[in-house]
Specification:
The chain is mainly alpha-helical and 167 residues long. It has a domain at 7-26 and 47-104 and 124-148. The chain has 4 helices and 3 strands; from the N terminus they run H-E-E-H-H-E-H. It has helices at 2-25, 46-74, 81-103, 130-158, and strands at 30-34, 37-40, 119-121. A hairpin with a 2-residue loop joins strand 1 and strand 2.
């Protein structure tokens, strides 16, 4: 139970770290101040998409690595690891998202003292559910790969020395 709690705490801490990495790597869209107000130019709009792509990539790597390591370390608990990995990866995704939103740029509409020609970074945002689903999907990939690795290791351990299994 202690190993499981340590692994859970590690994933939640990885969620915090992932939020900081997202904040660091994300390149949000730039709003431009004009006489009629702030506008998002078409050229700058690609930043909104890239913010989501960075969130997804960070989540995929983080979830996969953590789930694989957890499966290898806690493989003895069996199938119970699967729902635990799914729940913790979703929680880590929410934590990473909140860290990025809270510590990232504010909503451009709330910025005061803006003059014509100034650019204002957009707030980090994930506008749908799909980017959050990437985290548990890649965590499940990590579980599958960790389980397969353990099976291969168990098969090697059962094979007597000097026996050829290729036939």
């Amino acid at each position: 139970m202690r190993r499981l709690l340590l692994s859970a705490a590690a994933m939640l801490l990885l969620g915090i770290a992932a939020g900081f990495v997202w904040l660091w790597l994300a390149n949000p869209a730039e709003w431009e101040a004009r006489a009629e107000g702030i506008v998002l130019t078409e050229a700058a709009a690609k930043g909104e998409f890239s913010v989501i792509v960075v969130f997804v990539l960070i989540g995929a790597v983080t979830s996969w690595l953590w789930a694989w390591a957890t499966t290898v370390a806690l493989g003895d608990i069996g199938w119970v690891i699967t729902p635990i990995v799914v729940v913790l990866s979703v929680l880590a995704a929410v934590i990473a998202w909140r860290v990025g939103v809270e510590l990232g740029p504010p909503d451009p509409a709330s910025v005061s003292g803006v003059e014509v020609g100034d650019t204002i970074p957009a707030q980090l945002a994930v506008d749908g559910v799909a980017p959050f689903l990437v985290w548990p999907i890649f965590a499940l990939v990590g579980v599958v790969l960790g389980t397969l690795g353990q099976r291969d290791q168990a098969a090697d351990d059962r094979t007597p020395a000097g026996v050829d299994q290729t036939s």
